[in-house]
Amino acid sequence: MPRSCACCASPVPSDSASRTARRWRAIRRRRASRSPADVGETGRAPDSCRSRGHDPPMPGPRIHVAQFVAADLSRVWTALTTSAGVGSWWWSHWAGVDVRFDAVVGDDYSIAAPQQGIHLVGRFEAVEPESRLVLTWRWRDAERSDPEERVEIRLTPSTERPGTEVTVQHSGPWTSDAPGELNLQGWTFTLGQLARTLA
């Protein structure tokens, strides 16, 4: 039976999941081959900004993705901020995904798909219940760790129909269009998984 592509919702042959994982790793290798001077700052907020309690602007190039979810704020928030919730939909087209994701400011998280060789890690920077989640984002494997990126997720009640609007802004120290395009495709597909799971 065909399954969905990791980057879009279209049906694809079952062996394409491994091709998708290889494509992700290839893009990450190209990004990692650049020197720190090429990629610029890691995207961490200035200490002076944090010490004042300000939420710094998202640095560098960014992408924006919006998804309607036919569920109330409470259900969507739980699905986005707990290990059990995230584990029910994130990369659900792959087997053996390990999710450690409980949103507490300052805590680390980890989402790994060992069979695909994909590992995502980061730290929670802001947690505003049923409203906003900010986290750092870094791809990691046995050979390298990519530069740190930043993700902001906002939830708002839909004004047009019962449900919740989920918006994601993802920024990074990207020096080409490829990482942003990859993240745009990935978030579009992944948020689609969230919407289908909670429908």
UniProtKB/TrEMBL annotation:
Question: SUPFAM superfamilies given for it?
Answer: Bet v1-like
Q: Where is the composition biased (Basic residues)?
A: 20-33
List residues of the Activator of Hsp90 ATPase homologue 1/2-like C-terminal domain: 71-198
Extract the InterPro entries matched here: ASHA1/2-like_C, START-like_dom_sf
Q: Which parts of the sequence are annotated with region: Disordered?
A: 1-61
Q: Which family does it belong to?
A: Belongs to the AHA1 family.
Name used for this protein in its record: SRPBCC domain-containing protein
To which species is this protein native? Schumannella soli
The top of its lineage is: Bacteria, Bacillati, Actinomycetota, Actinomycetes, Micrococcales
